[in-house]
Each structure stands twice: as structure tokens, then as C-alpha cells.
Amino acid sequence: MTKATVNVVLSDDAVRSSTIRANWYIDQACQHVETLDNYLTAIQRKGESLAIYVPGRAVNALSIANTALDSIRFIDDNPMLVGTYFPGCNVPAESREMLIAKPTDNVIIMSRTFGVKLALELKQELKGQVNIVTIDDVLSLTKDITQV
Question: 13-147, superfamily in CATH?
Fold first, then answer.
């Protein structure tokens, strides 16, 4: 993956500080995209199926990483999205009911706000037969570069 870098030489401390923060953000974003892609690729290599819950939060990362969408399903609770496609993805959005009727081996919930709540609901509805993780669980696999 090619990483962009902000490289500005200015005398103003506030602008310099902003440049440092911008570079830190770029590093974090690249690290998170790579971690997500590695996680998804590992699932696919095992021949397991995967559902991405709240896929709108993932499509940019999937595109940046050029992640193969084979055996990946998109699930969303918004009924207006069912049967539609996200830009650049040939995977139609499905409903929660469709996931429950035909479960995948794994579910990754991309919402940081409602991830834990959704995970608890899905674990109950899918009766513990599916490996369910949140994006925070996956990103915890990334070493925090702020502590390097």
C-alpha cells in the first residue's frame, strides 16, 4: 500500500503540530486498513464465509486494500439498502433476517457506536453458531503506533 505523507516546513507551532497530527492520522488509517484486510484475507484463506455488518463503514477500506469480495456478504438493518449495491462493490446488501436464515461462518460489525449492542443481539439470534466480532476487536490486533 502506498502511503501519502504531509511534508510541510513552517515556522508556526500550531501548523507544525497540525502536520504531525495529520501524519499520525495517515499512519493510523493505513495500519487499520491493512489490519482489516489481513483479517478478512485470513478468513477467506480458511474457506470460511463472512458477513460485513454495516458495510457502508467498510467499503472505502475494502476498495483501498483491493480486498477480494468472494464469500463476503453485506448486511444492514436499513430496509432501504436491501438489494442495493455500494459504489465499486458487486455485493448486494441483505437484511438481518437474510443473515439469520442463512448464516455465515463469521460476522464483523463495522459500527463502533453500536457494535457491542449489535454483537449481543446477533449472538442471541444466531445462537452462538457464528463467530461475531466488532471492528474494535479486529483493530485491537493492530499495535498502537502512538506507543512505538
Answer: NAD(P)-binding Rossmann-like Domain (3.40.50.720)
